[in-house]
Write a structure and sequence with these properties.
1461 residues, alpha+beta, 5-stranded mixed β-sheet, 4-stranded antiparallel β-sheet, 39 strands, 44% helix, elongated
Length: 1461
């Protein structure tokens, strides 16, 4: 398809707005104009009637004349006029009828087939005949109608069976009458004068006694009779008079009922009596109740004009009085003609009297139709219209205007008349029989000196005006019996009805064939001549049947072209109808879309119509309207005037443009703003919902096909003129580009450098004064105006093409199970479908989306296993019928879908692989139109993941060809939209990953290829990742990495990701990307402290953990250590979870491991030296964190009162404030890392955590005082705290636990002398006070354990204490220290002796060093033994200690002598 034929969205949308405006104006004219307004305006018109133009073709043609069938004439002649004879027409079954005495004849009136049905089963003469619709369920299905025969004795029902022709083209080809002997009822002496039926099947009869009867019939169940007659207008007395009093004894003549007419739309019945009384009866809102008389009117005798304004004969008083005028016919008015006038009564003098059944009256200004829905309450005359005038000698005096020398209607003697939807037919018998036909005149009279109505909305009814009719007369037979409309064929009527209005809103009360046809005709010829055939009527007279045809305006124009008429006559036609209307008729002829006429349009007429449509002398040229200064009544003189307003000049296009808009709008107005689809459910409501119901198109497929053909014909005509460069297109060739309008591909003006605009071609009202008062728009040149108009016509042509394609698509969908197709759509699409109008389907993106989804559902049906046909079959139809909805790209897409369906059913692996790759190649050519959500799951089903990755990436690139998603210099919203469109494509790939991950794979067993095991799943996962990493799409890489992290595929991510993983993780984790700086000595400096202390969220921490794992995987231990340090020291982000101290400890521990791994890696010595500072930093931070953990544990224990009883702090015993403070401090410690100073001063000291204080002091190498008093005091507090809990034993335990951690501690962290003296004094006090029993070895062993079992420092401490007299003022305390020293010496001796004994054979080994130690030990033992003996204590206290030293000395000496031997 060439670029010129493509559906440009902007052009179609603009043409759609123009079309909506045209439809609204056209509907306001034809659907909203009320007949009452036209009659009111006609009261002041001097020319209500006009004659046909002499040079024009006739408005009325006599099509056929047929004599009565020979059987009728023979029977009539045989009776020599002694019996009764009647004649009439039944248009619903296409039959005319005649009765001669007791014999009934029926034959076709529209064509003579030689068949005349005869029925003579009655003994009495037939006095009335009627046709009724058979009620459902009473008779067999073949009987669709009932024939009602009335004789003076009884009423008889006959079944009417109609059969179609063999080819089905004629539904009324055959007719037979079925006698129903059980369905008869006596008349009870009443002669029936007329029979009428409603369109719902009710049968009413008018009696000569002046009463109205109804004939009821049923199946006759039980005791009820099958047929009975009831009187609706007579009471009980009337019934007695008919049965008891003989007719001969009744005095006075009854006012017989001569005619009954039923308004099936409003359910009102009217009756006309012999005395010209008109009665109105209410049949109920639904037409099923007994008739209720609501009013009567009898004042029809005087000639009146307008609303009771009389026009009386002013002739001589001696003139003989004319006979009183009588009512000869009644005709209900359709609501399409008037909402306020309900009935027209035709009087014998030619007048039409209009009546209403409601008291309130209004015109077009009244609220729309609310009064029309009220039930009738009266009958009154509203308006009257005079009849046509008759000239001298009985001829019609009709010129250009009616000669008013004689009173209107004077001399007419109407014997039969009919009014139907604007057609008024009179059978006149004065002075000679003739027929008058009055039809609405759509032309406007020519006014001398007036300009041609070029560019206007047309002269035909564009504004409401007085009713004006054109009258045609021709000769008739002596007596006319009936005048009846010929109904269009049923199939044509249904299509025309669907294409003229929405049958559910306009004319909704018209349920029967006749009523609905009249409602269609009420719209007028101009609005319906494209879809309705010419109206026809049949006149039954004494000589036979005459068929007349009413020519439409387009028929008149066609005959003008056929007759080679002069140009002056053609110009007159355009002027009288208006350039726009006449141009629209030319298009109907040129495109051959005039409806249902037996006469084909010749090629010569087509060419002449096309030339006339393009002739500027006929349709005018576009021009600027307005722009002149208008003077207000303030000042009419010269000079400057503030009241003078300069109107803004507006471009007004020619009649050709208007005609095209009119023609297009009338083709589409039945579907344009109405829903496309309806659903019929149990409730009967016509609406589309997702709750069920049968979905169908609102218009039938036949109607859509007809409309599509007409629209395509019009579009093809316009396209042919464009391609041939003829007419309007030829005049602007070389001016500019026709592909668009306005700012899009516009034409540059040479005078000004702006582009031409295309807008609604009619002058806009409102807002012009304010803007135009300041400056006047610069006028366009004629060439520019012509170019603008042609651009507008080109937009309308594209709209027509798009509309035809939409209709074709709807037909194709209707041929399938539309309900099933809709059920396969999502609820949101169904909601859009329910609200979708044809306008939206053609012009909007929403309509494009819904159409695409429906086509997708249709194609799914064809590619599914249970579908019929192949994709090629339906694709060819779609591609040829609606290329703008289904183009070449769509064709390739669904061919690929078909390949995938075959691949899914293929068992051979190679065949499946070949089909899958073929599908991928097809889709790769049209990535922008590929429906990824539909096709990628199919590739997943056959395990062809290469396409699952490649197709979304191709579509992402096609949707964002300029890579706006990566451009930081464009508008942010535009960049985000581009990125969002890409991410929608990426989501398809990540969904495939989700389906393969065991934790999220919910459809793993749904494939026809069977379930996948874990190894196969991971193999496909790796394949998808590898294919994705190869792509250069950076945005996809980030999206892929995000999804893999979400799915727990961290291992595969670290192994398979590309080099951009590190920047991605750094950016996602808010980690600095610059490498750590190195000092000249090679020591790596850590990242910025400020950067490290920035809060990060849990989400960011996840990326940093992966970054650290990546560095470990790549053996970049230093970078891994820095990342772990960042994680361990981070602050919790806003709304994120708090990091526990245990987790921080784990991070820092791993960081230390990574820092230590640097030295063991494959790095040089310089790197080892450079990273030594990092290790020290990490180890120090880890140690501080351990202190914090320990303090937190202690505080939590305190807050839970686990240790309150053991060591309650002073001043806080049973104090709730202290417990609350402990809880708060514990929470503070868990929130973030604290410095070592904060831990000591704010937490450890206040809560007397002396053990932690000692560890902190030891770690920090505290050396603030030379005497080491802080450390000594802390130890003393710790020991006192332990003694308070459980005595000396607990204190010894604390020493054993804490001492090894601090020893030797450069001598300051472990003051053994203070610890030893504090313990010994406390022990002596508690023993002397009998508070506790302390063993001699408890304290020495605790000190030995604190010194890592080294006796020498302990012995040195005791020796130091014993040597100081000031420290040990008490003799008992000195004795206790000597006992403890004995225990230490004993341990030392055993250790020395054990070192001397070899492990093999008990042999002795020694050295000079060990001999020296023994000598020192012996000397010390001897000294201690001497000091014990000197103590001024009782022998009982001293002897055990002295003996112990003695034994120890002997042990040492004995080992020495053994060594000498």
């Amino acid at each position: 398809m060439s670029w010129e034929d493509e559906a440009v969205v902007e052009d179609i949308a603009a043409a759609g707005r123009l079309l909506s405006d045209t439809i609204n104006r056209d509907l306001r004219c034809y659907a909203s104009g009320d007949l009452l307004d036209a009659l009111d305006a006609g009261r002041y018109s001097s020319h209500p009637y006009a004659s046909p133009q002499k040079e024009w073709p006739p408005y009325i043609d006599v099509s056929k004349k047929r004599e009565l069938p020979p059987q009728v004439m023979e029977c009539y002649n045989a009776g020599v006029g002694q019996g009764m004879a009647f004649c009439g027409i039944f248009p619903t079954i296409r039959r005319a009828w005649a009765t001669v005495d007791e014999t009934l004849f029926m034959w076709r009136f529209d064509k003579w087939d030689g068949t005349c049905v005869e029925y003579s089963g009655e003994e009495q003469a037939i006095c009335a005949v009627g046709l009724a619709k058979a009620k459902a369920g009473v008779f067999v299905e073949a009987i669709q109608h009932l024939l009602v025969l009335a004789t003076p004795v009884e009423l008889v029902l006959l079944g009417v069976c109609c059969g179609a022709s063999s080819d089905g083209s004629d539904a009324f080809s055959e007719l037979s009458l079925q006698p129903l002997p059980e369905y008869t009822v006596p008349t009870d002496g009443v002669t029936m004068t007329c029979v009428i039926s409603t369109e719902k099947g009710r049968i009413f009869l008018g009696g000569r006694d002046g009463h109205i009867y109804e004939l009821l019939y049923t199946t006759g169940l039980g005791w009820q009779s099958r047929c009975r007659k009831i009187c609706h207008t007579g009471g009980f007395g009337s019934m007695l008079s008919r049965w008891i009093i003989p007719n001969g004894l009744k005095f006075g003549a009854a006012d017989s009922i001569l005619e009954i007419a039923v308004d099936d739309e409003r359910n009102i019945m009217y009756a006309r009596t012999q005395e010209s009384k008109v009665q109105a009866f209410d049949l109920g809102r639904n037409g099923d109740t007994a008739p209720k008389k609501v009013g009567e009117e009898k004042n029809f005798g005087d000639q009146r004009d307008g609303r009771h304004g009389s026009i009386r004969n002013t002739g001589s008083r001696g003139t003989s009085r004319a006979p009183k005028a009588t009512v000869v016919s009644l005709a209900p008015l359709s609501s399409m003609e008037s909402k306020w006038l309900h009935l027209v009564a035709i009087v014998s003098d030619g007048r039409r009297v209009y009546l209403s059944t409601t008291p309130t009256m209004g015109g077009s200004q009244a609220a729309g139709g609310t009064i029309a829905m009220d039930r009738p309450s009266l009958l009154r005359i509203v308006s009257a219209r005079p009849g046509p005038s008759v000239g001298v000698g009985g001829g019609i005096s009709l010129g250009n205007v009616l000669i008013g020398t004689r009173p209107q209607g004077d001399g007419l003697k109407v014997q039969e008349a009919q009014y139907s939807s604007g057609n008024f037919l009179l059978a006149d018998s004065s002075p000679s029989p003739r027929l008058l036909v009055a039809r609405k005149d759509y032309t406007s009279p020519l006014i001398p000196g007036a300009s041609s109505p070029y560019g206007g909305m047309g002269a035909s009814g564009r504004n409401m005006r007085a009713l004006r009719e054109v009258v045609t007369t021709f000769g008739a037979d002596e007596h006319t019996y009936a005048i009846v409309d010929m109904l269009p064929p049923p199939e044509q009527a249904v299509i025309a009805e669907a294409l003229v209005w929405d049958s559910s809103t306009l004319g909704s009360g018209a349920v029967g064939e006749v009523s609905r046809a009249r409602a269609l005709w009420a719209l007028g010829d101009l609005a319906t001549q494209h879809i309705l055939p010419r109206r026809r009527a049949v006149i039954a007279s004494t000589r036979g049947l005459t068929e007349i045809v009413m020519n439409r305006p387009v028929d008149l124009l066609q005959r003008l072209f056929e007759s080679n008429t002069t140009r002056a006559i053609l110009e007159e036609f355009f002027q009288r109808f208006g350039a726009g209307e006449a141009a629209a008729m030319c298009l109907l002829l040129a495109a051959r879309i005039v409806s249902y006429d037996e006469k084909m349009i010749s090629t010569a007429v087509v060419e002449k119509a096309a030339e006339a449509f393009e002739d500027p002398r006929l349709v005018g040229v576009p021009q600027m309207q307005g722009g002149a200064a208008t003077t207000t009544p303030v000042n009419t003189g010269g000079g400057f005037n503030m009241g003078q307003v300069v109107q803004e000049a507006e471009p007004v296009f020619s009649g050709a443009h208007e005609g095209l808009c009119l023609c297009a709008s009338r083709l589409l107005w039945s579907v344009w703003e109405l829903p496309v689809f309806i659903a019929k459910g149990d409730s009967g409501n016509d609406m589309v919902t997702d709750t069920g119901g049968i979905i169908s198109c609102r218009i039938s497929p036949d109607a859509m096909n007809t409309l599509e053909d007409k629209i395509r014909s019009l579009e093809m005509f316009l396209r042919a003129r464009r391609n041939q460069r003829r007419g309007h297109y030829g005049r602007i060739m070389g001016i500019g580009d026709l592909s668009g309008y306005g700012d899009r591909n516009g034409i540059s003006r040479s005078e000004a450098g702006h582009k031409l605009q295309y807008d609604t071609p009619y002058a806009r009202s409102g807002g012009g004064l304010q803007a135009g008062a300041k400056r006047q728009r610069v006028a366009y040149s004629p060439a520019e105006l012509t170019a603008m108009e042609v651009r507008g016509m080109e937009c309308v042509r594209r709209l027509l093409r798009r509309s035809a394609e939409a209709l074709f698509l709807l037909q194709l969908l209707s041929q399938h199970h539309l309900t099933r197709l809709v059920q396969s759509l999502e609820s949101e699409v169904c909601r859009q479908l329910a609200q979708l109008s044809f306008h939206q389907l053609v012009c909007s993106q929403e309509g494009e989306y819904v159409a695409t989804r429906l086509i997708g559902a249709l194609m799914e049906y064809y590619v599914s296993p249970e579908g019929k046909g192949t994709v090629d079959d339906i694709s060819t139809k779609l591609r040829d019928g609606c290329p703008s909805y289904y183009n070449e790209a769509d064709d390739k897409f669904y061919q690929a879908v078909q390949c995938l369906e075959k691949a899914a059913n293929a068992r051979d692996v190679e065949v499946r692989e070949h089909l899958a790759r073929e599908a991928l190649d097809l889709l790769a050519r049209v990535p922008e139109t590929a429906n990824l959500l539909s096709v990628c799951p199919r590739f997943e089903e056959i395990r062809f993941y290469e396409a699952v990755v490649e197709l979304p990436l191709r579509k992402a690139k096609a949707l964002d060809p300029n890579e706006d998603a990566f451009n930081a210099h464009i508008d942010e919203n535009r960049r985000k939209m581009a990125l969002a469109s890409r991410q929608q494509c990426y989501e398809v790939i990540t969904n495939a990953l989700r389906s393969l991950v065991p934790q999220t794979a919910l459809n793993g067993n749904a494939s026809k290829m069977g379930p996948l095991d874990a190894n196969a799943r991971m193999r496909y996962v790796r394949q998808i990742v590898q294919l994705g990493v190869r792509s250069p799409d950076r945005a996809f890489h980030e999206y892929l990495y995000e999804s893999m992290i979400e799915l727990g595929l961290e291992k595969e991510l670290l192994e398979l990701a590309g080099p951009d993983l590190v920047p991605f993780l750094q950016a996602a984790g808010d980690f600095q990307t610059a490498k750590p700086a190195k000092s000249p000595r090679g020591i790596t400096s850590p990242p910025s402290v400020i950067h490290l202390m920035k809060p990060i969220t849990t989400h960011q921490a996840k990326y940093l953990e992966l970054l650290s794992r990546y560095y470990v995987h790549k053996r970049q231990h230093a970078l891994a250590a820095y990342v772990l340090l960042r994680l361990g020291e981070r602050k919790g982000g806003e709304g994120g979870e708090q990091l526990t101290l245990e987790a921080r400890h784990e991070y820092l521990s791993h960081a230390v491991v990574q820092a230590r791994s640097i030295r063991h890696g494959a790095l040089g010595s310089n790197a080892e030296v450079g990273e030594s500072g990092l290790l020290e930093l990490l180890e120090g931070k880890l140690a501080v964190l351990r202190f914090q953990l320990k303090i937190q544990a202690e505080l939590e224990a305190i807050s839970s009162q686990m240790a309150m009883d053991a060591f309650p702090p002073e001043g806080f015993a049973d104090d709730e404030a202290f417990l609350r403070a402990a809880r708060e401090k514990a929470l503070e410690l868990g929130a973030e890392l604290k410095s070592i100073t904060q831990l000591y001063n704010n937490y450890a000291v206040p809560f007397k955590l002396w053990e932690v204080c000692l560890e902190i002091l030891h770690f920090s190498h505290y050396t603030s005082d030379a005497e080491n008093n802080v450390m000594r005091e802390t130890w003393a507090r710790l020991i006192d705290q332990a003694i308070t809990i459980k005595g000396i034993a607990e204190a010894c335990t604390v020493v054993k636990r804490v001492g090894p951690q601090l020893y030797p501690g450069d001598g300051g962290s472990m003051p053994l002398d203070s610890i030893c003296l504090h313990l010994e004094r406390a022990a002596e006090e508690r023993v002397s006070s009998s508070l506790e029993i302390v063993g001699d070895e408890d304290i020495p062993r605790a000190l030995l354990a604190a010194c890592h079992d080294s006796p020498e420092p302990v012995q040195r401490t005791y020796d130091q204490l014993l040597s100081s007299t000031s420290v040990l003022p008490s003799t008992a305390l000195r004795l206790r220290l000597l006992r403890s020293a004995l225990a230490v010496m004993r341990e030392w001796t055993i250790l020395v002796l054990a070192q001397r004994i070899g492990s093999i054979g008990g042999s002795f080994s020694g050295s000079d060093d060990s001999s020296g130690v023994r000598d020192r030990l012996c000397s010390t033992v001897n000294r201690y033994m001497t000091e014990v003996k000197r103590l001024p204590l009782s022998p009982a206290a001293v002897e055990p200690v002295s003996r112990g030293f003695k034994e120890l000395e002997e042990m040492l000496l004995g080992s020495q002598s053994l060594q000498l031997h």
